[in-house]
Amino acid sequence: MSLIGPSRRQGGQKAGARRAENNRIYAHPLPLAFHTPDSASAVSRILSLLGVSSTRLDSPHCEGVFDPYTRSVWVVSEKDSTILWRRGFFGKGDLSRSEPSWLARQINARKAAGNYMTSEEIREKRRAERRQFKLDRAAAIARAAAEAEAAFAEGRQAAPTVIPSGATWKPQQQQPSEGPSLPEAPPEDSDEDGEGEGEGGEEEEPLENVEHLQLTLQEAWFLVWNLDCLTVLDPQTNEPMTLEQIWRAFQDVHSIPPPQSPTDPQALRFDNPFLVHYAAYHYYRALGWVVKGGIKFCVDFLLYKRGPVFHHAEFAVVVIPVYEDPADQESSPFNLPNSQTFSWTWLSTVNRVNSQVQKTLILTYVTIPARSRVSPELVSSPACLAHYSVRDVVLRRFIPARMRD
Description:
By secondary structure, this protein is an alpha+beta fold. 34% of the residues lie in helices and 15% in strands. The chain has ten helices and twelve strands. The strands form three sheets. A five-stranded mixed beta sheet has the order 5-6-4-3-7, with helices on one face. Strands 8-9-10-11-12 form a five-stranded mixed beta sheet. The chain has a two-stranded antiparallel sheet with strand order 1-2. Strand 3 (62-67) and strand 4 form a beta hairpin. Helix 6 packs antiparallel against helix 7. It is globular. The two termini are 37 Å apart. 21% of the residues are buried. The model is unreliable at 1-6, 176-180 and 187-200 (pLDDT under 50).
């Protein structure tokens, strides 16, 4: 007990320190932050006597470049990328799975050269071990089956065969010819800045961060329209776009070919994919959820309580467009996903995929207003979003063995 007690206590202390650090870094749920000045100052005391709050609103005023080819907004500034990620988990790094961490990974890889394994190498090592375990287990099962058949044919008792399990199996020791193995973690006194001298005393070339934060159109419009903390630049002129230009550009990228004029009937459609998905995105963001893309799990969105740093996503959202007027669907130039009647096979497949990763599937029905009831001219402004309705249905996979109680 004395041997494992301190290590557990040390591990708990490290986990607690990591949680406290994450709570400090990701304290703000949105890019807008409220700052309260020192209450001891004379100005604060005077304002409090007059009933006026001295709290000020801090807006970061980030900048991004609209890219119609990827249907996204690129935030190039490292400072703006850090703010948008740490305050609300907006966007993703174009060279990373989630948080823009390409530069940190390159620095760690440079420090790890010949010293310890990088996180990518650790992942590949563990995958290779799992693959080897499956091969060893399959070989042991085959030997046991062959021994049982031979024993039955000879009329004797089969010799016991050990079949490895995940709890007892250990990878084979590394052969001496393969060279010494590298530790999976950097030493405690390793250089943190990543700027040292290479082998032979040669100075290494400084790394340049080539990664940018990639915002979806829904995230960018939420930051522009609701929070007013993002400026979108035109990719041709590099000049700030007006709110009307952004609204039109985000819709036009879904039209093939793009509409030639604002009066083009294709430009005045309530079933534009950007509008349908933004209605669902805004619905959950307004309720306090962190909404991220869910293409990895065959869904449109993933819902996090606080963010990917704290917990896994609890819910997976499939957006299902519903036309208020079926005639609008027949005349629509867009082929909206899930707008047609889906099969039970498809639904069971998506539900099973998400239930295996402990996620609850939500079917989010977005009702598209009828053109006969609402004037199509209203699509030219964000006021049309008030005519969309969102309703969600929670779908759970019934497992008789687990749900008896």
